Amino acid sequence: MKLFTAKEMKRIDAAAEKDYALPGLLLMENAGRAVANEAELFLEKQDGRKVMLFAGKGNNAGDSFAAARTLANKGWSVSVALVAEKREYKGDALLQLEILQKCGLPVLVLKSAMDWDRAFVEASLSDLLIDGLLGTGFHGELAPDFLRAADLINAVKTPVLAIDLPSGIDPDTGRAAHGAVKAELTVTMAAPKPGLYLYPGASFAGKVKVAEIGHPLRLLAAQAGKRELVTPALIKPRLRERPVNAHKGMAGRVVLFAGSPGFTGAAALASYAAVKTGAGLVTLLTPLSSQNVLAVKLTEVMVKGMIERTPGVLGSGAVNEMLSIAEACDASAIGPGLGVAEATKEVVREYLTKCEKPIVIDADALTALNGHTEILGKMRTVKVLTPHPAEMARLTGDTPESVDNERIAVAARYAAAWQAVIVLKGAPTVVALPDGSVWLNQTGNEGMASGGSGDVLTGVITALLGQGLAAADAAIVGVYLHGLAGDLAAADGKIGLAAGQLCEKLPQARKKAGE
C-alpha cells in the first residue's frame, strides 16, 4: 500500500478537481460520510449515543461538518465546537458550515472561558469525540487555541476518532507537537500518510483505517511516490515454494563471519536464525578461540575457526579462507559479535572489497566501515546493511536522534549514496533501495527490544538471500518475517521476550505469511 506525503495529497486533490471534474465539496462530503460510518460502528460497539466534534478552519473542519450532519441524520446526538469564528472559514469548509447551521445542529464557538468550560463538560459527557482540528497541512507546533482544544480533548476520558491525522502530528515525519491529540482510531482519506506509521505519530494515531472517498485510482497511481507499507499481500508472492524433491544444496548455502570470545551469542543467534528461516546449509566462521564454544551451541551449523593474531582478533590470513568458503556459498553475512579490534576491522574491510556473493553487513562490520564508507561504492556485489540508528549515525556523522526522526529520508539518502539496500532497524524498520524506493514494516512489537534481536534479523535476511531472493526482496521479506515471529512469540507476553524465541517462531511466521 503506497504512502502519500502532504504535498502529494495536495496535488491529488487539485488534479481531481482540474483533470477529473471532481468538486472538492463532493470529496469532502464523501470524507464526512466515511468518518460518520466509522463513528457509527464505534458507537454501536460502545452502546453510545452522543458525539462531539472539534473543528478547525481548514478542509478537516469541512470533513467534520459533513460527518456531523450525517451522524445527526442517522439519529445520533451531535454537537460541534469551533476554534474559529464563521468569518474565518472559506471555500468548501465554509459551505459545509453553512449547511450544518441551516440544518439546526448546535454549534459552539470557543471564545470565552465559559465557552471552554461548557465544551469540557459536554466532551466529558460524550461517548465519542471527533478531532477535526488539523489535517495534512499541519507542521510545527500547535497555535494557542488549537493547543487549548487539543489539551481539552486529551484531558477527558472520552475516546477519540481523528480525521486524516491526529491534530499535532506531522503527516510526513510522524513528529508530535506538544499537546498533540491522542486518538483511538484515525480515519485517513484516500491513502495512508507516513506520519501515521512513524513514531511517535503512530502511538497517537491508534488504529488506522483508510477511507476511499472518490479519487480515481488512475490519479492515485500517477501521483504515487516511492514509499510503501509492507503488507501481507506484498510478502506472499515473494516467498519461494520449495519443490517436493528438494535437497539441502537446493535450499541455499550461506556462511556467516561472526562471534568472538564474550560475544558468541550473537553468532549463535544469527546462525540459528538462518537455519530456522530455511537455509539448507549454514556455515559459521568464527575466530579460532570461539570455535569450540560455538560448536557446542550449534548442532545444525558447521562451525569453523579462523586464523587469529591474538585470541579473538583476526589475522590477515583469514581473508583468503573467508573468500574461499564464501565462493562455495550463495550468500554471506559479516559482523555479529565479530569484534572491533583494529586488525579484525582491517580483515572485514579487505573481505568486503573482494567478496563477490550477496552479503549482509551488520554490527561490528558496520563499525569497521566508520570512516571507510567509500568501500561500499567499490564492492563487486549486492549488499544489505542493517544498522540501528546509533550505528547509522556513526556511519553518516549525524546524531542517533536525527537519524531516528528522519528515518525515511536518511535511509533513502544513503541507500542511493552507497548503492546498497539499507535496513534501518527500529520502530518501524525502514527498508530503502538505491533507486529511492522505501518500505515501512508493520510487524513487530516492543518486546523485541532485547539483545540479540538484530542478530536474528541478520540470519533471516542472509538465509533468504541464499535461497535466491533478490537483495531488496530478502530485506523486505526478512523484516516482515522477523517482526511476525516477534508478534507470535509475544502471545505469551512481551516483557521478557528473548531473541532465541524469535528463532523458534520463524517457521510458523513463514507459514503464516504464505497462507
Task: Explain this structure.
- Helix content is 46%, strand content 15%.
- The mean pLDDT is 95.
- The chain is α/β, with parallel strands linked by helices and 515 residues long.
- It folds into 2 domains: 6-225, Rossmann fold (3-Layer(aba) Sandwich), CATH 3.40.50; 232-513, UDP-N-acetylmuramoyl-L-alanine:D-glutamate ligase.
- The chain is elongated and about 85 Å long.
- A hairpin with a 5-residue loop joins strand 17 (421-424) and strand 18.
- It has helices at residues 6-20, 24-46, 59-73, 91-102, 113-124, 144-155, 201-205, 217-223, 232-235, 264-276, 288-297, 318-327, 342-354, 363-368, 374-378, 389-396, 400-405, 407-418, 453-466, 471-489, 499-513; strands spanning 50-55, 77-82, 107-109, 128-132, 160-163, 185-189, 207-211, 227-229, 253-257, 281-287, 302-306, 308-310, 313-314, 331-334, 359-361, 383-385, 421-424, 430-432, 438-440.
- Helix 2 packs across helix 3, helix 19 crosses helix 20 (471-489) and helix 20 (471-489) packs across helix 21.
Distance between the termini: 19 Å
> Which superfamily, in CATH terms, is the homologous superfamily of the largest domain?
Ribokinase
The proportion of strand residues reads: 15-25%
Classification by helices and strands: alpha/beta
List keywords for this structure.
single chain; about 525 residues; alpha/beta; Rossmann fold; UDP-N-acetylmuramoyl-L-alanine:D-glutamate ligase; 2 domains; ten-stranded mixed beta sheet; seven-stranded parallel beta sheet; 21 helices; about 15% strand
